[in-house]
Amino acid sequence: MAKADFKGVTSSDGGFGENYPTDLVLASKLENDEAYSKMMAEKGQATKKYSESMTALMDFAAGKTIAELEKELADNEKITDVVTGATFSDGNGYLQAVIDTAKNGFGVAGIKATDGEIELTHTYAAPHGDKAFAIISLAKVGDKIGAAYVDEFQFLDKGDVQGVPNSDGGFGENFEEGTVLISKMTNNGAYSKMMADKGQATQDYAESMNAILAYVTGKTAADIDKDVSDNENMVDVVTGATFSDTTGYVKAIADAAK
Fold it and tell me: Which sequence spans correspond to the domains of the chain?
């Protein structure tokens, strides 16, 4: 999106942002709800804000099984006819993406939630320098982190890596020639090899990240903050994590929980 009108993802003003034209910025539509909704109204005569339609679709999907959602899509040529409050022209595409995620998305083990509501939350962060940004997703049960997932996104040279969806389409036309935006978890093999070649890393990226996720699961933000305060380097506390910036990742997850 136009840098003048939209707020970029974390690290857009750092090394990460150097990979696309200076007048553009990679933006979250929800973080830029006002600006994006205004553009939808001007270009597509949208009558609702982006966040209103997206929230309606999320509320519609919540509590339903995969089979129930698939039946809804099969029975309705235009899903927005039955989703109160959603006016997206591509509502079917969004709901299909929810189904695909439920079937094939990355999964992590969490605590057994017996009491209280489960609250989903996410945030953007830069726990490891300014050449990448992270999306931190949490399922909170009361004040505890019931489950956590972190993925980072960075530009790498094209080659033996898989770009994010639409990298080979219009979205990818905004990348610097010869580069592609990648998910580190999706490209664990290639990224881990780069870590070993350039930083003498001794284990895969995913191994260290999963160790961090296991460490935070079941803890409160206060629990994590205390560990950070009591230990100069959290790599000594998080069993199985060898990231040089383990402390940065742990602090970013605690911040997300707040």
Answer: 16-104, 118-257
